[in-house]
Design brief:
1 helix; about 25% helix; elongated
Length: about 80
């Protein structure tokens, strides 16, 4: 796909780190598969993966977790 930010080049497969914050909760997920723009560095995570990350974060918030740092594992 062409980068929607810089509009110059096609994205390439890679990995990224996702940080989610809400209230006092912070989640950092490393090694998340994504499409990365080699020109500007913008990353694009698939909808399915985003849904997985948000679901896991919501469960952690409900359990009272304040900080979570993990490596991505496909569901």
């Amino acid at each position: 796909m062409k980068c929607v930010i810089c509009k110059h080049v096609e994205t390439v497969p890679g990995i990224t780190t996702i940080t989610l914050e809400r209230g006092g909760f912070t989640s950092i997920v490393k090694d998340v598969p994504a499409q990365i723009c080699p020109n500007c560095g913008e990353d694009y995570v698939a909808e399915k993966i985003t849904a997985e990350l948000l679901k896991a974060a919501e469960q952690m918030v409900k359990s009272g977790t304040l900080v979570d740092i993990r490596q991505y594992k496909a569901a």
